[in-house]
Each structure stands twice: as structure tokens, then as C-alpha cells.
């Protein structure tokens, strides 16, 4: 039996997808906050696991799942549906390109102005010349300058979108067992190449990288295997994946280096698969608490808002966080490891949220800020 009927169902918003998207962007922010505090986390390292190091590494090594969840959502929402290459690319490409260009210009200009009026705060160019400024914007596009580190994601997701029509045509007329065949080989590459860092003698470049996460998202949404309906399985997968990520980080870290696995490691695959299944399975439950189950409740509105602005959050949060961290350092307020983590995370999230919410109210501008 093929999956040609998947795309014929009436489209409607699915809450657990919004919840996964919200978790994805929150995980991305938490990871980058932990990354900015690497020296503080490393300073707590001892030959035996301690609570201070464990707290930091939970977010550094355990929260490197946000990009994976975004990829899985792309597969769950887009693959196995009837659409043409032109309609898919015509809708998806502008949705990622326009906010990318908009925020490169806006954030880049803002950072240059901050340096111009307060050179002691940041230093993104060595001189305000045409060559230096143009070089700064070019590096911003490729994620190689202050505040724009996560912009590598744009190029990765763009390449993934370009190959998705090929995979969609295959999956649209394939049995889910064929998707399982692909995923088994892909997970083998995740184990050897991205976890053990031992290249396989067989060249499996067509089964590596982000496209596997996309297919995994599609598969976990549509599979009918009963084992995946069990709530205990996703919980077990999450615990196993998280434990391996943190313990593996501990084994490979030392007093000078903080280690985390590649985002396509088998442990990441296990954890994100568990998270996806947990959210999918919980979506079928009714909670007695109105604040959780009510469609117009505060909780669901908050989740929807974060999910709606998630791409915009991704594009702007690093610049906001980096400037705030620099402010803390300049004002000699950069102390108190646990307090710092909470403070940086909350400030970054709140400012990003306010910026997106305000700009979303401006006609025309709201189309290019990364809100959907």
C-alpha cells in the first residue's frame, strides 16, 4: 500500500507540531546560552560527575536537538503529499530567504551602530570603511561573525529543501517499509560517522546528514506500527539518548575542553525520536487542566506564539544574546554560573519575543521577519 492518500487530507493546524517547534527553538537558545558559558562549565569539571557540571552539560550536550527537531518537522509536514516542485520551492524558499536577508541587514546595521556609538561594547569591524563593512555583511551571511553564528542553518535548510522534492516523489509512492530501509542505513552512518567517528568502508554519502532527520519525521508521523503507540517507549528513548549524550560528553571532556556529539549522532537520533513520539502520542490525551487543554488558554497561546516566531527567534537570538553577554562583561556583572544561565536565557528569549511581536504588527514588515 502506498502513501498517495496522505496529501489528500484536509490541512489543519496540529498542536503537537507547534509544541515541537516551540521546544526546538527553546532548545536552540538553551544550547547557545550554555555554549556562551563554556569556560564556566569547564571550571566545574572534576574526574567525577558533580551537580554543577551536570547542570551545564545537560544544556550543552543534551539540548543539541533543536535543529534535528526542525528537520523532523519539515519532513512530517511536507513529505508524502501531492505537490509540484514549483509550488513547494515557490512557497518554501521565499519563506526562509526573505527573513534571512531582512535580519542580516537589520541586525548587521544595529551591531555596526552599537560599535560606532559604544566601541567598548563590541568590535565587529576594525574600521568603518566600505571594504570592512561589506566584508562584515558577507561574513554575517555565512555565520562567521559576531552575532550571526547560527546562520549556517539557512544554507543547510536551503540545501535540504532543494532535495526534498526528490524524496517526496519517492515516499509518495513508496511503502513505509522502504522508508525503514533508508532509515536503517542512515542510522548506521549516524552510528559510525557521527558517533564513533569511524568512517564506513562502504561509501554511503546518499544516506548521511540532515535528510535522514527529514525522512525520520515523516516516518514517525505516518507509521502504524503499534510499538510506537506505547507511551513508555518514547520516555525510554529520551532517557537513553539523554544519558548517552551527557555521559559521553563527560567521558570525552576534561579540564580544558567541553565535548558534545555531532548533531547527527545516534544518541541524538534516539532522543529526538523519543521526543517526537512522546508529543505525538500525548496529543491523543485529554487533560483535565483547562489551561493545558483549552484551545484559547494561556498555555496553548504561548506555545503557538513561540512556534509562530520560531524562525525569527532563530535568526535574531544570537545577536541579542551576544550583545547582552558583552554588556554583562563590560559592567562586571558576568558572574554566578547558575544565575547567569537563567538570566541570559530569559533576557534573550524575552527580547526576541518582544521584537518579533512588535514587528509582526507592522504591515508588510510582518511578512519578512520569520513569522508564520
Folded structure, characterized:
The structure is a single chain. The longest helix is centred in the N-terminal third of the chain and has 33 residues, at 85-117. 65% of the residues lie in helices and 0% in strands. With 372 residues, the chain is mainly α. Helix 1 packs antiparallel against helix 4 (66-78). The protein has helices spanning 15-36, 38-43, 51-60, 66-78, 85-117, 130-141, 152-172, 176-192, 211-222, 232-252, 266-282, 290-293, 298-308, 310-330, 337-359. It is globular and about 60 Å long. The chain has 15 helices and no strands. Mean pLDDT is 90; it is low at 1-11. It has one domain (6-283, 297-367).
